[in-house]
Amino acid sequence: xxxxxxxxxxAGTTLNIALPGDAGHAAALDSWxxxxxxxxxxxxxxxxxxxxxxxxxxxxxxxxxxxTSTYYELTKxxxxxxxxxxxxxxxxxxxxxxxxxxxxxxxxxxxxxxxGQDGVDPHSPDLFRDEPTDKVGTDPDRCVLALTLSLAPRAxxxxxxxxxxxxxxxxxxxx
Length: 175
Known about the structure:
Elements: E1 14-19, H1 25-42, E2 46-52, H2 68-86, E3 90-96, H3 100-115, E4 145-155, E5 160-166
Parallel strand pairs: 2-3, 2-5
Antiparallel strand pairs: 1-4, 4-5
Helix pairs in contact: 1-2, 2-3
């Protein structure tokens, strides 16, 4: 269930948020409340983001329809949460994204969010389909994809509380 070698498999430390296929910007932002509450309750010393960009609409593998603006907004919220909880200590690691133009635009917008600049989404909102937002939740039987939050009470390499946010479409559930 854990995603990286330094997290621990302890009951209650992993939150999977079920996302149906075609979930997009609204579903990601609706899910943020669950993530923020869990991370705030956990009070990490630092936040690690496994930044997968393969949820972008144009990515051939993700099955989601995130926009560049989605990645900007999520990054902005992570930066704000990190500032409030752990003095801004955040590590973002590029994980995936297989449509190079969408990847470049989304990573650039993530950096803009980190730097406090405005986002620049080059893609028209008319390209996106209606989202099945009514199916977002924590029931794995209702999803094809997931956002995962893993909390490590004591990461063995750092002896501190860490939080891993994994945002790609291939976390735990592929039906």
